[in-house]
Amino acid sequence: MIKFKHNAALITAIVISIATGVPASADMGTIKGTSGSRVNVRQSPSTSAPVRHYGVGGDRVTILNQTNAPDGYRWYFVEFPNSGARGWIRRDLLQVNAAATSQRISFTPGTSAAKVGGKVQGTQSRDYILNAGAGQTLTTSTVSTSPYIQVQVFDPNGSNLYTGSRDWSSVLRRSGDYRVRVRLVPEEQKQGVSGEYSLTIGVR
User: Which of 196, 26, 154 is nearest to 100 (CA)?
Assistant: First the structure.
């Protein structure tokens, strides 16, 4: 859950300024604190920076960037997967979890789709990276043994294009590396909860 204090357009400049630094594989984090406790999400990595919105204890976030700031703190630039909202959170307010495992996808000559599969458990996730061009259509189709498997698709600039469990298709607006992530839904990312999946990724 995330509560906005201002329109998301107010942080557009921040997003653009670090978009080129978004890694192909990102760490995940969990906001510290008790359920309902607020943590400030700031416009820039500083305790004096404006608070644009806030998260609450237990919220899961994707870590897109990090820096050691002049104020002596380490800061993480994060994205809330469900809303797409972004901002900076101080290191001591965030529990950093295991990084996603990534794999680059290539298509067999004469084909336009590839099938991959695996298993994710708890907070684990797996990323599939593929290069596609503007105007092409990217599709994903998932078969799973678990109702909790979720797929996310990220634009080359790091923005979230899709989060869900259904088949998905979209015409791409830019060229570059797209990232398809498989994970459990945040509410079920618990120890002992797992799911196997088969994922088909196509570009035409």
Answer: 26
Give the whole-angstrom CA distance, residue 118 versus residue 151. 13
The answer to whether residues 152 and 61 touch, using CB atoms and an 8 Å cutoff, is no
pTM of the model: 0.57
pLDDT, tens digit (0-9, with 9 covering 90-100), for 103-140: 899 888 889 999 999 999 888 888 899 999 999 999 99
Q: Are strands 60-68 and 27-31 parallel, antiparallel or unpaired?
A: antiparallel
Token output for 54: 């806030």
The torsion angles phi and psi of 179, rounded to 5 degrees, stand at: -120, 125
**Which pair of tokens denotes residue 35?**
């359920």
pLDDT at 25 over 80: no
